[in-house]
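User: Modeling request: complex.
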Amino acid sequence: MSLSFAAVGLLALGVLGLGPVLAHLARQTPVDRKAFGAMMLVERLVRRLRRQRRIRDPWLLLLRILAVLAVVAGVAGPNLLLQEDELSLGGTGRIVVVLDTSMSMKHPDAEGTLFERAKREAVAFVKTQPDQTRWGLVRMSTEAERVTPALTTDRGMILADLNASQVGLGGTELTSALREARALLAGEPGDIVVFSDEAGALTVRSAQEELERVLALGSRVIPRWIGVDAPKNVVVGRAVYGDGLQGGTVTADIMNFGQADEEVQVSVLLPDASEMTAFVPVAGEAQASESFTVPPEVPGGVAEVRVLDEGLQSDDGHFFHLPRVGASRVLVVDGAPGPTPIRSEVFFLERALAPWGGTRTGVTPDVVAPAGVGKLDDERYRVVFLANVANPGALAPELSAFVRRGGNVVISAGENVTVDRYNSAFSALLPAPLRKVRNLVALDAGGGVAIRPPDTEHPLFSSFEDRGRRAFGDVYVRRAMTFEPFEESEDVSVLLRLDNGLPALVERKVGKGRVLFFVGTIDLAWGNWPLQASFMPWVQRTVGYLGGESAGGTARFNGRVGEPVLIPLPEGVRDPVIIGPAGPVADRPVAGHVSFTPDRPGAYTVGLSGAPPLAWVAVNIPPAESDIRRPVELAAVESEVAPELFARSVPLGPWLLLGALFALGLQAVVARNRSVGETKEAA
Amino acid sequence: MTLWDAEVLARAQRLRLIARQAVSGLDYGAHLSRRFGDSVEFIDYKPYVAGDDVRAIDWRVYARTDRLVLRRHAAERQLPVTLVLDASADSGTGATTASGLPELQNSKLGFGVCLAATVAFYLFQCGEPVGLRIIAGGPLPWDRLPPRRGQAHLHRILAVLAALRPEGSADLPDGLRSLAKTSRKRSTTLLISDLMEPVDGFEAAMRAFGCRIGDLRVAHLYDPKELDLQIGPAAQLYSPEGGAPIALDPAAARAVFREIVDDYLAEVRTMVRKSRGRYVPAPMDASLGSVMWSVLAGGAAPHAGKRRFA
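Assistant: Request completed. Predicted assembly structure:
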């Protein structure tokens, strides 16, 4: 709110005239002079009267000053500038209606949805404008759509287009919509009336530059907010399949964009149609995490986490990739089945992976002899243990390919492991060429060389803190495979060392997979590790580290509704079929790729007819669209850019003159009363 | 103007006449001193201690109570009185003679002069020494006369009073301090003044003065018409002692002025009481005899024990 004067000079003149007026109001000095013997008391009298007059006279003086000022100001013609919250039409006769068709407009309203209300209000608005108005229509979603190629006076066509508009699942691209509206106005001033909920954290602020361009043309953007005071929307912000021994867990982040606390039903729908449900409390404008333990065996694919909320329901589902989950994710190739349990690597591995025998949780590994290893299914196996395998030559090609594709191999030494055979067969997998088997202590002596505590910064050992880390000191190795000298690099690193400095556990990255080589045995032949406290968690962590975090096999992609998804195709694959939640989806081949634009969230597969899918695509709603809050109002940003548009001028002249008249009358009454009082007192 | 001017001599004669008329009817007698002595006036008893005069032992009391006590009697002594007259210009408001001297009947200073002359005459009649001290005022051959007795001294006092012309500003604190240096202890001082100075300014000096001389009496000269603002229509009032004039409408300010006068009189009374003195109002319209009677015979000051005049 501010004040402006039409005649500043007149105002100054009035202020100058105020001095004589005040002088006139001052009391006149008597002429007679008299000697007075008690002047000391008169001085006291003057001081006391001055104090009293300060209280009594100011009211009269104030009234008179106010009256004079009001007269002067009233004649000067001041205008009060008020800031209005809403803009009115600029009167150009050129109006572009922007209708928000984004997903957030599906939010329930008292009479249907926000979109239906927006349509009703837009139609009513169009009907109330003059006949000669020239109209344009823009639909606003992930991409703005210019419905009318140019401004038209055909009101009926605009109304028909408005009624035919449908809400979609896209985002709210205000920038794009304003750009299209500006194009419709063709550089001339006009009014852009936006019927939108303005939802999204950055929706309005990101459109500020385009808004400035529109306003620079002399146009106005008139927001007609279509929303509810207390919107509700609970969505799944993120869902990931975490590593674990068997099946692992799905962790979902539940986000509540409403202000009220909610307790929502959250369900995980797995590819095999099985479902897990939990009730998750989420505070207002906060998020909560919930973990779901996946059953022991689940086929790989695209799974969904779905919440059940009363607000916006189109974004209740969130799709994510789930690797094949099964009890046989670990394959143990037993090179030397021991005669007794303590001489069997499989015995210790099985108990480390499934401490309760596989009845409750844990991994029951598939165990095969070296000869039984065929083609390794990437979806089925993520980790292969080679336990004291004597002749790895036959396995080498398949294992190498398996690792390059993303599989993982753990090799342990033993009496069957021969340097020459391993070096020749596994040259592409071994971290370094093997040198020889070395006795670290005398065979008839007790104990061995201990393992140094690991570096807990490494993800494999991150869970070994404090006592768990020191437990590695109880592990000793009596006999170990040694490597030819090698240097650690980005691909080759020593994860564990013996006390004498020899590498104990070495990792090498090959292709998308990893190879771990343990220089001892994972039975009691060359050491005591299987009996130590650190063995079981190390094995479980190794399986999780190598197999839980990566998905193999079918390629996996993510996409968003309304945005093109580009899928690379293997060589020789042509004319793939894309199947979405509603059936086949139109695709567009692009030089070794296939592209399609999903129109709804869900699981999409890319493949050839009658063959396993080549790729899975998890398509979700744009996350920004789920945030139905309106942190910044379009009108507020517009008032920042062009505050003069929101100013309304109110003439104050007549009111001031009226006030002056009132003040003059009031001061006359006060002065008369005072005069009468003084006369009585004098009498 | 000298003390031998005809007008002064006539005024002195008139002063004597006024004084004589004022004191006529009053009894003259010896004054009782606060000292103990050999007079027949009994004051009180005192326990006997070795060295006391055994002639003063009251044997009758001894016979009755078996206690030796002495009878004490008042001593008859002279009572020197110093009259201090404030002749500042403010005191001179009122009617004046053609030569500029204040009229004895219609001016504050004239009333003060008459009061001083009356007291001096009365004390002369009683045979007591009386002195005079003038504060402010016009130039005089003597502005201070030490307490003495005798016809010639009285005539000198009356002549000085007759020639007194209001002038200048009375610096009461300074005047009281200088008077304290020359006054005898346990003497009596009668201050005749309009006391038109801020009390804060001379309260300390008056208190010190009162403590030194032991008997201070203050005759407060004032014009009741002035203190009631009976001064006619609105005018610019000014002080003869100087300062800026102040425009005042008496009718409008009278009520507030009365409050101020009441406050001021209360202040003065309190100040005199704190100075161990006796406050005596001396309005111009009061009779000279009654004021003098209040000054001399109004009873002893609260601290003065059993000493009293007359």
